[in-house]
Amino acid sequence: MKPMIDVQQLSKMFGTKKAVDSINLQVEKGELFCFLGPNGSGKTTTMKMMTGLLQPSSGKVQLSSIDVWANPVEAKKRIAYVPDQPNMYDKLTGNEYLRFIASVFSVKEADFQARKEKYITLFELEEALNDRIESYSHGMKQKLNLSAALLHQPDVLFLDEPTVGLDPKGAKTLRLLLRELCDEEKMTVFMTTHLLEVAAQMCDRVGIVFKGELIAVGSITELQERSGQADASLEDLFLAITADDERARTLIASLRGDSYAQKTD
Ligand SMILES: Nc1ncnc2c1ncn2[C@@H]1O[C@H](COP(=O)(O)OP(=O)(O)OP(=O)(O)O)[C@@H](O)[C@H]1O
């Protein structure tokens, strides 16, 4: 079966800087995939190219066998993207915003009502629903945006730092919801996070990107096995892999099963 997300040789240049360097990645339907990496390593740039928001310099992205750049409308019907700094229509109320997003995706009225009810209850937004978004806190906007993203039941949900701004209860609700959506509804989730504990708790597999290159991909157990460090936490592995030294190069080569020459800038 074809993977739900298929990224082939994806690269992005900003001037002379290669922000994303020939990334190849496949994510299966129903997988919860965490995309990890230090600041400035290329996570957001990669995700924007995967969602059709930023034109790649080269390479290809297919979602459910649909080429995101050759067939953008069809691809965008099937996905939702929640950025870390959402741009929302601040003068709308939460309710008006949800209705607007539902109309963009032609969600049937009954489905809209049922899903709206489910997510606003889950994220405890009922009382704020008739207030303008400009009065919402960052976390409330994040919750509203997550609710909006799920209204059309996307095949693939892209999330950039989704737990930032959420209180502990909201973050836990989101973690459980994402797991449920992947396990029961076979939604595919592709998310970035700097919270390695969160990634370790909820993801099926992680990908670690460093200086634009995808240097490790697998479940935490697979990474532990391939690195020969059965007891290492994801944080231990992450810090060792991204240390930018000789030991890191050896470790990356063993994780990838090749010889790895790290870039020197
Ligand atoms: N529009 C742009 N113009 C020029 N350079 C850019 C642009 N967007 C990103 N970059 C550069 O590309 C590199 C990757 O940035 P990106 O935002 O993808 O990193 P990131 O891994 O998401 O970082 P963070 O964890 O800090 O959010 C960085 O060096 C950044 O400065």
TrEMBL record:
Keywords: ATP-binding, Nucleotide-binding, Transport
InterPro entries linked to this entry: AAA+_ATPase, ABC_transporter-like_ATP-bd, ABC_transporter-like_CS, ABC_Transporter_VariousFunc, P-loop_NTPase
Pfam families to which the protein is assigned, alphabetical: ABC_tran
Cited SMART domains: AAA
Highest taxon of the lineage: Bacteria
GO-annotated molecular function: ATP binding
Transmembrane region(s): none
Residue ranges annotated for the ABC transporter domain, each copy included: 5-236
Protein name: ABC-2 type transport system ATP-binding protein
Organism: Shouchella xiaoxiensis
